[in-house]
Amino acid sequence: MKLQKLYSYVRRAVDDYNMIEDGDRIVIGISGGKDSLTLLYALSGMRDFYPKKYEIVAVTVDLGYEGFDLTPIQKLCDELKVEYHIEKTEISKMIGEVGCSLCARLRRGAIGQSAKALGCNKIAYAHSMDDAVETMMLSLIYEGRFSSFEPLTRYEDNEITLIRPLIYAPASAVVGFANRYELPIVKNPCPFDNETERTYVRNLLNDINKHAPGVKDRMLTAIKSGVSSYKIEK
Fold it and tell me: Stretch 41-69: mean pLDDT, rounded?
């Protein structure tokens, strides 16, 4: 995927859901993976031409695992002229064998605290179209509900709004962009990585797509038209 195509995906989502307003200061949650780095690239570049002026700050939550070298991300942020912060935590010691669900809640809490401390009013997560569809499938299979996350979620109690500008971008396009532009991906040191229910659902969807190409696009359409109650399950 070329940069202009990435801009088209992101701008469409931003415009459709009014994700960005004049004066916004937005935290981008940077995990070190291809999705968050692609979002960083998109929102940093759009500052130059998007009609509504905004600022961005990149934040990585360091879970406390050894060998998590964020130097390449710092270098990329310097090149893109983006302020970068690392939120040090001991989440790795807190989750034990509980794994992803607790870790996700703690990471969201750490990002929220960083956003407030940095004077930001919005948090941008790099959830793609595939993430939305996977979340819906997880809900169907394990909870018996048809639900997914919203592209934009407002929390009036803490004055923070969550946005997901990559919601229209397929994961395959994100992979293509990361490879084309040689993004400095930092491997996730988490021992639970690639051993989750989400990984099972991802593989299942990829298998279904071989038999029914375009199924993820159709599922996203179903989510947009059929989900009346959203819940973030990440």
Answer: 91
Tell me the pLDDT band of 79, cut-offs 50, 70 and 90: very high
Contact present, 161 and 123 (Cβ < 8 Å): yes
Give the max Cα distance, the chain: 48
CA distance 50 to 70: 29
Separation of alpha carbons 220 and 226, rounded Å: 10
Q: In what order do the strands lie in the sheet with 83-88?
A: 83-88, 54-62, 24-29, 122-124, 160-163, 152-155
The answer to whether 59 and 32 are in contact (CB under 8 A) is no
What is residue 26's three-state secondary structure?
strand
pLDDT for res 145:
85
Per residue in 156-185, pLDDT tens? 666 899 999 999 999 999 999 999 999 999
Please give the average per-residue pLDDT across 207-216, as a whole number.
Answer: 92
**DSSP secondary structure of 20-56:** --TTEEEEEE--SSHHHHHHHHHHHHHTTT-SS-EEE
The DSSP symbol for 17 reads T
E strand residue ranges, 77-124: 83-88, 122-124
For residue 56, count other CB atoms closer than 10 A to its CB. Answer: 24
pTM (two decimals): 0.85
